[in-house]
Amino acid sequence: MSLPRLKSVKKIWQEMTNFGRIGLLILLLLIFMALAASHLTWHPHNVSSGPPLAPPGKAHLLGTDELGVDLWAQICYGARVSLIVGLGTALMAGAGGGIVGTFAAYRGGVIDRLLMRLIDIMLVMPSLPVMIVLAAFMGSNIRNIILVLVLFSWSHPARIMRAQVLSLKEQGYIKMARVYGGSDLYIIFRHLLPELFPIVAVSMIRLASMAIVAESSLAFLGLGDPTSRSWGLIINHALNFSGIYFTPFWQWWLFYPWLFLTLLVISLAFLGRDLERIADPRMAKGL
Amino acid sequence: MPALEVDSLHVKYHSASQPVQALADISFSLAPGETLGIIGESGSGKTTLALGLMGLLDNKTSVAGKVIYDGSELLSLDETKRKAYRWKRIAMVFQNSLEILNPVLNVQEQVGEPLVKHLGLKKLELENKINELLDLVGLERDWKTAFPHQLSGGMRQRVLLAMALACRPELLLVDEPTTSLDPIARREIIELLERLQKEYGFAMVLISHDLACVARLTRHLLVLYGGRIVEAGKTEILLEDPLHPYTRGLINASPNFFAFRDLWGIPGEPDGGNAAGCAFAPRCVQSLEQCRSEIPVLQLLSGGRKVACSQGGIMTLLEVKGVSKAYRLHNKTIQAVNSIDLEIRHGEVLGLLGETGSGKSTLAQILGRIIKPSAGQITFQGKPLNGELTRREKGVQLVMQDPFSSISHRFKVGQTLREPLEINKVGSEQERERRIIEALTRVQLPFDELFLNRYCYELSGGQRQRLAIARALVMKPALLLADEITSMLDPSSQANILRLLKGLQNLEGFAMLFITHSLDLARKVADRIMVMRHGSILEQGSTQRIFTRPCCCYTKDLLAAAFEHEHN
Question: A172 — contact with chain B (CB < 8 Å)?
Fold first, then answer.
């Protein structure tokens, strides 16, 4: 079943602001970097390929770290980790939370109340400390990190979805569709999903950027996957180099991973803000 | 012993082209001093009936049946014997027009003519009698020498009345006494007739289009259509609660009976009454196959009322018995709808009036199957109301108050209208297409591809509400529930939509529950009114009755509050 209000790519592009377009372009560029990492780099990302702590130059585009590993290669491959964590968390938490929220609102009653209490508990738990503990206990590989992040982020989309479905349920056109004999599935697919999809999408973009930052934080704290070489881990290594700020090394070793991380998060924020505006056709009209 | 008894009177005119059955199977009786009104559209046979009673139908007309007056059968009498009755005992006030009076006779000669002919009065006696009659009908003696063309309509009516009263008849037939009179003359004539009837105690047959006049002057009423009696009964009850769809149509079309209502005639034209079935069937909103094949007979119902309809009069479409709805709110039970009984009949507009929070919308949503009642029974055409009724044709359709909520802003116009048809798999693709275009035409919206592909959020409130009505109409409902449908619109859109809806209702004949808190709107649109408060129905009756003679205090308060400005 086609979603009735999914607009063509061209139309979305036309409706976006310049900030949104920039965000989208950067995001696409970073995704391209991650996908084509092996073609974009000429040095290995995991073994030494030159002098340690070489500044950016012809041989090493962004310089090398203290073991002489090429930073450009590390960042390109590290983009994979960041994006997988971001997208994986966003998809799983967004879809899972969305389903839970919709289910709770649609069924109501005891199920709703139980799920809501659970969401409340998840919301009040300080996520980063618990994440650190869990990551420490469960062992740190990418899968576990994603699972931990999902566990702590599904409650947000669930809450949003529940509120949306609750208000939609009271809408006349949903009631009319039911009176006309529309089944639950019909109503969910024909009326609820098109209405909810943009909100979920926006929520997922927020989750993605949260997850990327969280993964970097964990890696930064030394709880990341040591084999994954994510951006957070590069920063972690750079900061572990004692007295880095007294040397010029931070200008590339610390700066470039930070720059890419910031670019990714900002591009997601721009895109999210724009999509939120476009998602509601009334907002697009300025009504 | 009735003074006048008519037994299955048939009258057929033999015109050049084809014979016309002017009257068929007319039977009624009239006690001495009693008053009887006869109403019906032009061509329904009212005047023919009066002429028949007077024995004034010419030889080319075939007349069958019996007219018994005071024990003797008039139709079989020869002309000379009949003359003894005519004018002396049965007189007629002819319909007022210039040609009814002899243009070369003045008032004195005109009024004197029957006195000379029937009573043989002469000179002074004649003079005195003429003066007496003119005084009686309130015409100044100065007019005695005037000729008909010099008189006003009201004066001519008085002359006609004076002529009819000349011989002190026992039975007076009055044909359209108030047509073409201005309001003052009309009132004077009505008062005159009322006074004379009381003073002289003659029996009166009043033929009129003027329902207010009939309501005031008569106690019994016959409704004629296509030469047949379709309904008979006591005037007051019949006009308050008509049983035949035709009577209801006549009442709805009469501004002089209830001035505030919007004017809507009965759609279609009478077609001679030669058909094999009920003559009214082609124009009737509830006609069935049976109506077209058999002629209904006048049946006696309880309370001495009679109606000629194969369905036994206007059918009950929806019946609600003891329906309640209670909500729980913080350990408190709120009785939104409290044991309501109501009835919606075929093709009528029932106005449900009440303040905000009186439970009107809850009731509408119960009837529209959106919420379930906590108690009570609802039957639709004799069967329990179930979910299937909102999904099929000839069922129940609800139009909600807020068009911005009742229609998805994400849908296109075409999708919106197609939704009920698609869910319920009604018709083929072409059939759906045709119906959508038909519904859009009905509500006066464009129906080109461009409009069908427009998103609903682009439409104005008025357009969206029309679209909501169109969505209800594609399902061809027998009952439309209109829940405050214009409360969110500007006055102009409101007027447009209501006129449109009322026009559709009048044309297609669906019944409508019109829910509103606006008395002005209810007074314009509804045939019957129910007043609701705190979940209960306080009062119900015809719109005319509720707005002119309310019984319940709350209704009186409502009227006083709403129409304060009208009395200043």
Answer: yes
DSSP class of A17: -
Chain B residues near residue A178 by CB distance under 8 angstroms: 370
CATH number reported for the structural domain that contains residue A36 in this entry: 1.10.3720.10
Is 50 exceeded by the pLDDT of residue B2? Answer: yes
Decide if B403 is inside a domain.
yes
Size of interface A-B (CB pairs under 8 A): 59
Tell me how far apart the alpha carbons of residues A226 and A238 are, in angstroms, rounded to a whole number.
14
Given CB atoms, is B1 within the 8 Å cutoff of chain A? no
Mean pLDDT of B143-159: 89
Residue A239, chain B, CB below 8 Å: the answer is no
Cβ of A4 within 8 Å of Cβ of B411? The answer is: yes
CB contact under 8 A, B410 and A195: yes
**CB contact residues (below 8 A), chain B span 461-490, against chain A:** 471
Q: Using one digit for the tens of pLDDT, what is the confidence trace for B347-361?
A: 899 999 988 888 898
Is A282–B398 a contact, with Cβ atoms under 8 angstroms apart? no
pLDDT at residue B1, rounded to an integer: 61
Q: Does B263 share its domain with B367?
A: no
Element housing B377 (H / E) = strand B375-380
* Beta carbons of B148 and B102 less than 8 angstroms apart: yes
For strand B298-300 and strand B306-308, is the pairing parallel, antiparallel, or unpaired?
Answer: antiparallel
Contact A165, A196 (CB under 8 A): yes
In this predicted structure, the answer to whether residue B488 has a pLDDT above a threshold of 90 is: no
User: Per the CB < 8 Å rule, is B390 touching A182?
Assistant: no
B406/A contact by beta carbon, under 8 A = yes
Which stretch of A269-283, B138-152, B201-215, B428-442 has the lowest confidence by average pLDDT?
A269-283
Whether B117 is covered by a domain: the verdict is no
Helices and strands of chain A, counted as H and E runs? 15, 0
Answer whether B393 touches A (CB < 8 Å): no
- Single pTM value for the model: 0.77
A177 contacts chain B (CB < 8 A): yes
The beta-strand segments (E) located in A129-272 are none
Residue A8 binned pLDDT confidence (cut-offs 50, 70, 90): low
> How many other CB atoms sit within 10 Å of the CB of residue B360?
25
Structural domain tally of chain B?
A: 2
Residue B368: list chain A partners with CB under 8 A.
179
Q: Is the pLDDT of residue A286 over 60?
A: no
- Expressed as residue numbers, the domain containing A274 is 14-53+60-284
Which one, of B265, B267, B357, B375, lies nearest residue B320 by Cα? B375
CATH number at residue B379: 3.40.50.300
% chain B with pLDDT above 70 = 98
pLDDT at B293 over 90: no
